[in-house]
Amino acid sequence: MVNNLFIHETAIVSEDSIIGPETKIWHFSHVFGKSVVGKNCVLGQNVMVGPEVKVGSNCKIQNNVSLYKGLILEDNVFCGPSCVFTNVKTPRAFIDRSNEFSQTLIKKGCSIGANATIICGIELGEYSMIGAGALVTKNVRPYSLVIGSPAKHIGWISESGERLGPDLICKRTGEIYEEKNGNLYKK
């Protein structure tokens, strides 16, 4: 184990990928060429990364998730089991659209629930939380809590993952937030 890096014997990691220290890559996962996975990440069973995907540090990718070309995960992102990222908006099996892959940006601290679907070409804001099973079709504001199909904003979430009440004070940390022009900011 180099730099406390763990790659399960059934996992495949392309030689031209970069894997940070203290990262764990579990059973049947595959990291394709020119992908970068930061330090202290966990890739669960049957995770596919790449090619040319960037995963920040401290990310947790649960089982059965595929990260396609054009996807960027910043630091501290959580991807729940079987969540789905698309790479083209109008796929057809009989038309090659690999030159149309859209960039999708998942900002730091975002959490995506199990079985949620994220349509390509959008941005999920810092510390936003996507409910399990949600279908996200447009950009999500920082600290926003969204659920449903299509996903709709139902409230605010703190950096530590607590749902904020009307006082906008995190019950876990005591941090205070404020809402301005339809967006939330930490004071």
Total number of domains: 1
Distance between the termini: 42 Å
Number of strands: 24
Largest sheet: 9 strands, mixed
Q: What's the CATH topology label?
A: UDP N-Acetylglucosamine Acyltransferase, domain 1
CATH architecture: 3 Solenoid
What's the helix-strand series? EEEEEEEEEEEEEEEEEEEEEEEE
Q: Can you say what the CATH homologous superfamily is? A: Hexapeptide repeat proteins
Low-confidence segments, ≥5 residues, pLDDT <50? none
The pLDDT mean sits at 96
Beta content comes to 25-35%
SS element count, helices: 0
Q: What is the CATH C-level name? A: Mainly Beta
The global form is: globular
Alpha-beta content class: mainly beta
Care to give the gist of this entry?
The protein has 187 residues and is an all-beta fold. It has one domain: Hexapeptide repeat proteins (UDP N-Acetylglucosamine Acyltransferase, domain 1), CATH 2.160.10.10. It has no helices and 24 strands.
Descriptive notes:
By secondary structure, this protein is mainly β. The protein has strands spanning 6-7, 12-13, 18-19, 24-25, 30-31, 36-37, 42-43, 48-49, 54-55, 60-61, 66-67, 71-73, 78-79, 84-85, 104-106, 111-112, 117-118, 123-124, 129-130, 135-136, 144-147, 152-156, 177-180, 183-186. The chain has a single domain (2-160), classed as Hexapeptide repeat proteins (UDP N-Acetylglucosamine Acyltransferase, domain 1). The chain is built from no helices and 24 strands. It has a nine-stranded mixed beta sheet, with no helix packed on it.
